[in-house]
Amino acid sequence: MGIINQRKNPDRELKSSVIQREGNSGINTLPDYRIPTGVPPVPRNTQGESDLYLKPVNAVDHYSSKEESSRPVVPFTGGWMEKKLSADHMKFLWDMIGNKGETCGEMLAGHVMDSYYLEDKEDYFYVNVLDPLMQEYMHNFGNPGDKIAVNNLHPFCLHKWWVNYQRQGEYNPTHDHTGCFSFVIWMKIPYTNEEQNETGTNPEVEIAKRAGQMSGHASNGSFEFHYTDIFGASHSFWYDMGTPLEGTMLLFPSNLKHQVYPFFNNDEYRISISGNIVLNTNTKIPVEMNTDLPDFVEPGKLERNHHSTGTSIVSLPEHTGKKIGEYHYPPYNDINEKLFHIIQDLGSGKTGVNPEEAHCTMTDWDLYSSQEHVKTMVDWVQRIIDDQFDPPEHDFKTVETWAVTYKEGEDIEWHNHGISCYSFVYYVNVPEGSSPLLFQNPEGIIDPKPGKVVIFESRMKHKVPPNKCNGRCAVSGNIFLKKHREL
């Protein structure tokens, strides 16, 4: 199953994850924007699993009524997301097109001569457009990554994307894509639908008029989705292409078949961008362990899929009263030596989630569930957060916890802990020469001591400079505040 991640290349290690962020998508109402007609809007369905029953106004309840009654039943069939991109997003895309890479037309299904790979510089487009739009898709239709037969949680990533320069007469036959999600962005359309199918006097327009009369739709220059209904009958959804659709993006399941029709009597390029989003199975996502789930939530369900339970991560307000605190864990003398040996026996984790900034030995991120001493300490940390940090309102918490061991010369570069709310470090072994913990904004230097616990807001940047001994060891973790979504 898939959850959202901001890395774009499966061959690069996962740096941080972007999970449970609601986007703000949708088409702006513009006078010249032509929305295809003839197909009713897709009904809202938050899980993508159960049927949606549409109840007519003033209808009698079908089950409780003792009288004869009826109702329409509309099964869930799926759909896609449509978005109008902002001027900033379009500028970024044109800049990437200006720096396009090597040709890739031979790798594509289209009868298009000129196609080139693109680079998502600093993951800008994934983080700011694709990630929020995928969140909206899953909010409405469910997570297509759930249906992929893998044994662990893996992040989504932008695998490849490319720009197409389509000449008149060129086309893409009916095809689908690899991956979970695919997308198309119409950058430049040098014609209108009317010119291609209605007002022109060239033979292609005359043929389109005749075809439109026979089939109900003239197709020159158009984009078409193919799908079947619950009876197996084939249907089409048309986008009548033209200049007003420039800057429009569609995000759809990769196995949704579609095609692009040729345009005629125009010597300019039709420019579009396409791409695929896949599961990065080279990287596993660390499981957030549920620490105080209410009884009515199935145990472990959040660990399998963040979205299936309708939850969201709570963000800290911009201004907070307490950002960092130092504490002393009372039973450290009784557990540290044993815990240190356990951590050394665990060694380096097998899930491949070490961030790029970490140059040290890091265990798997599951110590809360696998080590009782760690669980007891983390529960103690959570009580301090509730008592002293005035956390935002939330329904429950989840955590992820790991251990790090430093040899001489090893370090962790400047970083923060992404979208979690609070983070902590608990010092297990502190030989002479152990490096301090440094913070930015506000600046701070914290010397490590056995049994010391540092709790801080996850958004605070921090680092551990090169260590001057062997065996510096600590347990670290993130605490997420969660709320149930109101859908």
Describe this protein's structure.
- With about 475 residues, the chain is an alpha+beta fold.
- The chain has helices spanning about 85-100, 125-140, 195, 205-215, 300-305, 330-345, 365-370, 370-390, and strands at about 1-5, 50-55, 75, 80-85, 115, 155-165, 170-175, 180-190, 225-230, 235-240, 250-255, 260, 270-280, 290, 310-315, 325-330, 360, 360, 395-405, 410-415, 420-430, 435-440, 445, 450-455, 460-465, 470-485.
- Strand 9 (about 225-230) and strand 10 form a beta hairpin.
Low-confidence stretches: 1-56, 289-309
* CATH class bucket of the largest domain: Mainly Beta
Judging by the overall fold, what is the CATH architecture of the largest domain?
Sandwich
Number of domains: 2
Could you estimate the helical fraction of the residues in percent? 10-25%
CATH topology of the largest domain: Jelly Rolls
Number of strands: 26
Silhouette: elongated
Helix tally equals 8
Q: What share of the residues does DSSP label as strand, in percent?
A: 25-35%
Report how far apart the termini are.
22 Å
Please provide a brief summary of the model.
The protein is α+β, with helices and mostly antiparallel strands and 487 residues long. The chain has helices spanning 87-98, 124-141, 193-197, 203-215, 301-304, 332-346, 367-370, 372-388, and strands spanning 2-3, 52-53, 73-74, 81-84, 114-117, 154-166, 172-175, 181-188, 223-228, 234-239, 248-253, 258-260, 270-279, 289-290, 311-313, 324-328, 358-359, 361-362, 396-406, 411-415, 422-429, 437-439, 444-446, 452-457, 462-464, 472-484.
